[in-house]
Amino acid sequence: MRGSLLLLTIAALAAAGCAATGGGGADEARTPAPPSAATAEPADPPGASRTPSPSGPETAPTPSPTPTATPAATLPGGGTTILPDHRLVGFAGGRSPAFGRLTPDGLDAAAAQIDAIAAEYDGDGRTVLPVFELITVIAHGSPAADGLYRTHEPDDVIAAYLAAARRHGALLLLNVQPGRAGFLEEVTRLEPWLTEPDVGLALDPEWAVGPDEVPGDVYGSTTGAELDSVAAYLSSLVAVHGLPEKVMVFHQVHASVVEDEAALRPHPGVVTIKSVDGIGSRADKERTWTTLMRTKPPHVAPGFKLFFEEDAAQGPLMTPAQVLGLVPTPDYVLYE
C-alpha cells in the first residue's frame, strides 16, 4: 500500500525525531499505504505540495431537472436525515486487497464484521448505519491515458458494491482520489450513482496533486472552496431529485492537506464529515485528532479512521470505547 508517500512520511518523522511505519507491496502504485498519524502536526513533510488540484474551486453545475428518485426515497432503514439519530460505522475497500477488507468476493463477510463492530458503537442511543466505502477513482503513480494519474472503476463494479450494500442495509460512499484531475470534475462523472438515495461521497485530497506532481511522491491538497463546490453540487442533486441527506466525507491526514476550511459552508441536504486519517499508536492518533479538530468548521461532523493491521503494529488497536471517548465524539468511524 501507498509506499512512496509512506517513505516521504518516514523521512519527515525521522527529521522530527518521531517514529513512523513503513510498508509496501505489489499494489503500491495504485493505492500506497496511509502515512503515519503523527504527520498531522503543523510542519509540512519535505517536498509536500500545498497546491490544490488544478481545476480549483468550480461553480457547481446544475443537474438534470428530471427526477430519478421518487419523493418517498429514504435512507437504508428508513428516514431522510442522518445526524444526530445515526452514527456511521464502516469498512473501506475495493478490488485490490490492499484497499482494505471490503473486497469483491468478501462483501457479505465484511458486512457481518461491520455489524459485529457496530454493536459496540450504539451505546449512546444512536442507531448505527453501516457504510461501504468503495475506492472508486484511484490515484496512480503513473499517468493514465489522459495524463491525469487516476483511473475509474467501471460501472459493473460500483453496481456490485451497491447491490451488496443494499443487501445489508448500508450506505455506499464512492471514494475519489483525483490525481491531477479536479474533485468536481470527477464527482460529476458519478452523477448517475449519486442520484441514488443511498449513495454518497468520500473525498481523498491527499491524492489531489498539481499539474507537475505525482500522487504518492508528495501530499496532495485541496481548499475549503473546492470542497464547498462539491457540497453545493450534492445539495443541488438532493433538491432536484427529492433525495434524503447525502454524506460528503473528506479524509485528512495532515494539516496541509486542506487549506482554508472556513470556506466550506453548510449546504441543505448535505452532511459533511471531516475524517481524521493516519496510521499510528493510540497516542499518535489522539494527537492527530486534537490537531486537526482545531480547524474543523462547527457545521462539519467529526470522523475517525482506524487501520486493522498498520495501527496494531504500533500498539493495540483502539477499542470502540476509546474511539467514543474522543472529544468531539466521532459521527463516522471507518476501518481499513
UniProtKB/TrEMBL annotation:
Entry keyword Signal: yes
The protein's name in its UniProt record: Lipoprotein
Signal peptide start-end: 1-19
Superkingdom assignment: Bacteria
Keyword entries, A-Z: Signal
Region (Disordered), start-end ranges: 19-79
Organism: Jiangella rhizosphaerae
Keyword Signal belongs to the record: yes
PROSITE patterns reported in the protein's UniProt record: PROKAR_LIPOPROTEIN
